[in-house]
Amino acid sequence: MPSYTAPIKDMQFVLHDVLNVTASSTPGYDELEADFTSAILEEAGKLTSEVLAPLNAVGDQEGCRLENGVVYTPKGFKDAFAKVKEGGWTGLDMPEQYGGQNMPYILGTAVGEMFSASNQAFTMYQGLTHGAASAILAHGSDAQKDTYLPNMVSCEWTGTMNLTEPHCGTDLGLMRTKAAPQEDGSYKITGQKIFISSGEHDMADNIIHLVLAKIEGGPEGIKGVSLFIVPKFMVEEDGSLGERNAVSVGSIEEKMGIHGNSTCVMNYDGAVGYLLGDEHKGMRAMFTMMNNARLGVGIQGIGIAEGAMQHAIAYAMDRKQGRTPLDGTPEGTGTILDHADVRRMVATMKADTFAARAIALACGVGIDMTAATGDKAWTARAAFLTPIAKAFGTDTGMAVAEMGVQVHGGMGFIEETGAAQYSRDVRVTAIYEGTNGIQAMDLVARKMMDGGEAANRLLDEIEADAEAARDVFPNMTDALWQASETLREATDWLTEQSNMDTRFAGAVPYLRAFARVLGAHMHLKAALADKGGPREKLARFYILRLLPEHVGLLAHAQAGEADLFALSADELAA
Amino acid sequence: MPSYTAPIKDMQFVLHDVLNVTASSTPGYDELEADFTSAILEEAGKLTSEVLAPLNAVGDQEGCRLENGVVYTPKGFKDAFAKVKEGGWTGLDMPEQYGGQNMPYILGTAVGEMFSASNQAFTMYQGLTHGAASAILAHGSDAQKDTYLPNMVSCEWTGTMNLTEPHCGTDLGLMRTKAAPQEDGSYKITGQKIFISSGEHDMADNIIHLVLAKIEGGPEGIKGVSLFIVPKFMVEEDGSLGERNAVSVGSIEEKMGIHGNSTCVMNYDGAVGYLLGDEHKGMRAMFTMMNNARLGVGIQGIGIAEGAMQHAIAYAMDRKQGRTPLDGTPEGTGTILDHADVRRMVATMKADTFAARAIALACGVGIDMTAATGDKAWTARAAFLTPIAKAFGTDTGMAVAEMGVQVHGGMGFIEETGAAQYSRDVRVTAIYEGTNGIQAMDLVARKMMDGGEAANRLLDEIEADAEAARDVFPNMTDALWQASETLREATDWLTEQSNMDTRFAGAVPYLRAFARVLGAHMHLKAALADKGGPREKLARFYILRLLPEHVGLLAHAQAGEADLFALSADELAA
């Protein structure tokens, strides 16, 4: 059974030694002294390792159960949820006005990683609530905020996001769910939504569904989509709960992982809904929220990577195995961690998890700075890093979980061991909140509409840091500087392409190469902060062995779309 | 529900147009005219798509059930097994003397891919039997061959391989299972074995277990391991079945995938066993058999890649989705296959599956040529290609199955869709018959004890072919030639390293780079055979976009072991 120890030192190292948060001028960051972050992270670490981690396998094995329209969560989830609420964790970065603790986003991000690492399926009940509350906070009327936010911030009520329908995923323009305007200003919502995480369960008094639907008679396609608040139980004027709304769960999906979360088919049969934000501007409202949610999903990937890594290292240090007869040491004297190839896997897991975490927290800084300053450069930085943090965080989660299974050998394929669960749970993170392909398309299109300015500004920073470190680490800085220049050329080439398919054909390898270079930058800063220490050693591993991947990725990124579309659909299917 | 169409044209293209099998001088290959291979492959294709594929999801959902020592296979497996036996498929490449059809190994390899593609869990009942029968064929006495082979070739009796014990996987020197010599020349076998695929089931009259154990008083460690035949039911002089032997199933493992195969804990409680081959030479006997079994596992990976790819392409061609608003085409008019990034994934799946299949079949040619000629160069070729075919075939299986899930988007995470099963089933292929890390270590150590001769001979061939094609495809040949030279330098560097850990530190990236170059060679030959056709287009995709990965991989391969071992175990665990 996997145990989990929150990587508090690693997180603090990134916050204080790599990103230097207290040295920044962000309001709220001045409080983030090491003593303070340590206190918060220790407390969250305790909760996640003692309460949530022990329920991770239980949730996987037991799953959720639907009986007569009621969804029962796995044994122990309800009590654990009560403890999470009690600790005030659900409102960590929410405004005090609605019962939150008003802490910087970056701290919520670090704590969020611990929650996902210890129990991803459980954490999603709270995570979706946070997402829905953020949307109401950003787009709701004062009355809507007052009605819903206090109970959602405390997780007395939970939330959901209803986008997907059976026939359409990413392309929401094909949506069929209808909203019929009523005389009292409300709407009647009718349609079916699928893949609704935490759609129905037994841990909260009410569930606030945010539902995308088309107002009858509105514009065709994506431009006619609006966002609605649809409570499971109607909320009376005095805040008490009234009648049950016409929303029900059709079934629970059988999934590859995150069995402890109820992924529901939701049926809306003329359910009462309230417009959130402007008519036909549902996508805008959704995107505001999804942008931060994307970082959140990246963090899920990183958390699961950390969990899988801890599990694999513990196994590798315990598993007795002689070294191979070839090098002459006596058989049966070591553990498998003595093997160079097991070390390669473990070092890759550690180096990539560190890189992904540092990139995600740097993105968090951008979000906090944007909120605090409104500075466009910070907005652009956060926007640019978001798809990278999401895709690289979840790609890392998948790769690390897969290596975790591999380190276990045959034991990894046996469910009892727990390694496989990480691999199954993390799989969805590369898909939801926009597949990683969509993230890459967003990066090379929308996030490069500035002609590559945000990208080049990052590269300038990287090269300046590399220059400054040249005397200390000549090999590493040279490798990083060269990689940054190669990436700059690819960036220039991409921004010159007016045919979007040319960009899209190389989008995923470009994003991966950018993450490799960003990761090397973070590792170089880590090495500078820990000269001669283990973080320098890990930086050397990353920069000299993993960073070179950017060469192949950037060749791929600039190969254009012609060959791709030269193959007809029939030729591809043949 | 996934359907499966055997890729007969692709297989024939590799056999006849890329590998030119009929033009070779291998005995038995002169029969392999296109008409003949077509007849065999069509027949196997029919069986696999009509009988085995429909049971693939059933096997996954139902799994195997243990009741009172009896293992029940999923519904329909028994009838399907009867049809497989009826068609004579189980003895395709076995000697006629024992009821086989004596066909070349390469044909069994192609047919084996179809079996794995359509139903991996099912196919393992036959696959393990084939492996056990091969071991008896290679190392058994005439009496043992006569006693066991006819019924094993026909699969009236099935076979198993018993290596692993709870405390030892790869390092068999730690083995505890004991063999006590009896006066009649037999042994009493006592111990517990785990991960025994097809260990017990209801589809055969008898099960012939091959069990590794240590004869009491023999040498310590790996040098004291012998191989034994332990039948489930004793076989009488007249060939009839006698008493039940003291071997029983302890439990069935709950696994990540291949639920339809019974992976058993087997208990030997003084079971009667017969020495197979020489005393204390069990590892030698095991390795003979495992070498071919490794290619077989590579083929499993390729088969599952093909199945996952067909499933994903069918979905992509059916799934309606407007193109992104960015390029201006009307929404809702296309399928997701119009998206450049979906095409990137589909083309990668196709290009890698082709490359892996061609490499595996080229390895099969080496095995057939070795058997026919005994020529050391062929032996070395087959031996060199085997770990690459195994690791690249199964890495490709994992990567393609994962992309198959990704192409499905959210639907891919829902088990009903079938995409996830490929991903779960294929996971074990990178682990069993020696993890892919072990394959890579074998490649850079044992398979390079010739000072790199086998490797360089392959590179000579590749460069000669590239030179010959330079006028036709200048870009592709140049890319391949350069890559081959870079690989040659890395090969020279590795063979010069006397510290095995230096080689092992770079083993996996080296193997992957070698596979990339071999794949490019196969693709170039395919392009030459199909100028201007879809295979040339796919070759361009592979050579210009995937082949460049070798640069990063070979940098990693030559980075040495020092940084890896600089990190202490405690630093890695911190």
Describe the protein's topology.
The structure is a homodimer of 574-residue chains.
Chain A: H1 8-18, H2 34-52, H3 56-62, E1 65-67, E2 70-72, H4 77-86, H5 105-139, H6 142-153, E3 157-162, E4 178-181, E5 187-197, E6 206-215, E7 225-231, E8 233-235, E9 241-244, E10 247-252, E11 263-275, H7 282-318, H8 340-373, H9 376-407, H10 419-426, H11 436-444, H12 453-468, H13 474-496, H14 500-505, H15 507-529, H16 534-546, H17 549-557, H18 562-566, H19 569-573
Parallel strand pairs in A: 3-6, 4-6
Antiparallel strand pairs in A: 1-2, 4-5, 5-11, 6-7, 7-11, 8-9, 10-11
Query: What's the mean pLDDT score of chain A?
Result: 94
* Helix segment tally of chain A: 19
Cα-to-Cα separation, first versus last residue of chain A: 45 Å
User: Beta-strand level of the residues of chain A, as a percent range?
Assistant: 5-15%
Rg measurement of chain A, Å? 24 Å
Structural class of chain A: alpha+beta
Helix % of chain A is 40-55%
The major sheet of chain A is characterized as: 5 strands, mixed, barrel
Strand order of the largest sheet of chain A: 4-5-11-7-6
Give the CA-based shape of chain A: globular
Regions with little confidence, pLDDT below 50 for 5+ residues of chain A: 324-329
Number of strands of chain A: 11
Assembly type of the shown chains?
A: homodimer
H/E element sequence of chain A: HHHEEHHHEEEEEEEEEHHHHHHHHHHHHH
Largest interface: A-B, 105 and 105 residues
